Amino acid sequence: MHYPIYLFRHGETAWNAERRAQGHLDSPLTAAGRAQARAMGETLAEEMRQVGYKPSGVIVRASPLGRVRETLAIAAEAAGLAHDDQCFDHRLREMSWGDWDGLNGAEIEAGWPGDLAARRLDHWNYQPPRGESYVMAVQRAQPALDDIAALAVERPVAVFAHGGIGRVLRGLFLRVPDTEILTMDQPQDAFYRLHKGAATRIGTSVDTEVEA
């Protein structure tokens, strides 16, 4: 890798605000989420100016889910990024909660008593019903990251994804233990520059983090 990878999470969504699991389902960005997306694009544009990269030369890769598409459209306009349907990669989708997609904690506990506690005891390996564990997410994230790193040999890459799969990508890049990946932040008011074995957090003017 000669060039950096810029890793983004989508802006706040309606279900983020309601603390609902999203997984492979979707909800639209809130007003705060749209502001976050715009701020991330503007901050990336400033980063490009400082290091001398042309935004039009940045390769874009993104999850195909709606909340990322909405974030990408706003951020790309603000940053001057060029992208089309070829940029979407299903391997960058969020980790699926399976039957829990769209539910909040109380609803999950009511339907599957004790399962959230079981997940907390074995967070890395636990698989929600018909969903994905972190172990399963790694199996698709690693080849996606390998392909992105190959692109970064020639040009900078901007990756738009999600909280869970984003922390997996970051952890794989840094080659840190599973336990460290699980404690990584999932900012929607900042993004990360992955370069030369380090992950640098780049904050924006919007200062509100929303957890998955």
Describe the overall structure:
The chain is of the alpha/beta class. The protein is built from eight helices and five strands, in the order E-H-H-E-H-H-H-H-E-H-H-E-E. It has helices at 14-17, 31-51, 66-79, 105-111, 115-121, 134-151, 163-174, 178-182, and strands spanning 5-9, 59-62, 157-161, 190-195, 198-203. The chain has a five-stranded mixed beta sheet, sandwiched between helices. Helix 2 packs across helix 3 (66-79). The longest helix is centred in the first third of the chain and has 21 residues, at 31-51. The protein is globular and about 55 Å long.
Rg, rounded, reads 17 Å
Major sheet size, sense and barrel closure: 5 strands, mixed
Spans of at least 5 consecutive residues whose pLDDT stays below 50 are 208-212
**What amount of the residues lies in strands?**
5-15%
- Give the overall silhouette: globular
Distance between the termini: 30 Å
Separate helix tally: 8
Helix vs. strand class:
alpha/beta
Give a count of the beta strands, DSSP E runs of length 2 or more: 5
Q: Mean pLDDT score, rounded?
A: 95
Instruction: Summarize the amount of helix as a percent range.
Output: 40-55%
Task: Give the strand line-up of the largest sheet.
Answer: 2-3-1-4-5
Order of helices and strands: EHHEHHHHEHHEE
